[in-house]
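Sequence in, structure out. First:
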Amino acid sequence: MQHDQFSNIAPAPGRRADLLLWLGLYAMAMALVEAAIVVHLRHLYYPLDPREVFPLALLNDADLALELARELATVVMMVAVAVLAECGWGRRFAAFVFVFGVWDLGYYGWLKMFLDWPRHWLEWDVLFLIPWPWFGPWLAAALIAALFTLWGGWILTDARALRPRRADIAGFVAGTLVALSAFLAPAWPLLAGGEPAFRDWQPGAFLWAVYLPGLGGMAVALWSAARHRPSGGEPLIQGPASPGRPL
């Protein structure tokens, strides 16, 4: 049986529950590893108060290179486990966003446990470093993570195929880029000033008017992709060694 790249071979109900459990445990374990690294870096670079991120204490060249490599490796690990966990690009994407969401929420949970940070809902964080630093309230990142966790879990617990329409894909990409621009915008004017500009910078007002429409666009596109799944079942091929199981 031939399948397009968005075909889905859904596991049996019991295995779907096991899959969510193990993906969630994997993501929480990854989150703990990341949080542990950040706690060590905070104590190293902010010895007076590891909970006070701004003004920034810039990483030295060696630590920055290692941190960039670690961020890239984290994404690779999430993509790899999603590819191994599911079949078809639709369900693999759902597995990826589920792992991403649980990982991000777990990361902030572990930081709260070990560092008592974040201290309030709108506290700013350095969210990512590629292609340049992302700045914004941790809550903004956590809302996207919550959306991914809920939607990915919904898709993975359902046996129906997921074949996103082009409009859904375009809507999700557009919403993602709009939301992403709110995180990238604060550092954009600092790039020309180099290290001194970053050292002196303090968070101002977050671009909620940009971020929230982007988040809404992502949510609508994901909901639409889920809503347009076929109402009936389709033949399933069970087991990793089954003939015709798409890679």
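Second:
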Amino acid sequence: MRGADFATMVISGFFWLAFVASANAAPVTVTGCLEKGHEQGEFQLSHATGGNAEQYELIAGKSIDLNAHLGHKVEITGEKASEADEKSGGKKEAKETPHEHLKVSSLRHIAAKCP
């Protein structure tokens, strides 16, 4: 019984740490070109400035319509996410360039064309 109580406390601690880390995640704002991703329903931000990567794979937040801004220069604000946060959970492509994942919380149109 003591072992089970200890295991429960350890697991609860991990969940609490994960919650605190996600609740304190600082928003990231990047500007770039909104494009279709490698898979159907995926989006990416290329030629990105303002963040730690040149390319981001985007996970659309609620009420964010990324399709309406395809091919446009946009400013994206969101939180860094992991590949596990993606809905598809698809396979990683061999030719995929290094990038970060960003869960989009807001989008602002900058220009109708990308550089």
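Remark: Residues 2-23 form the longest helix (22 residues).
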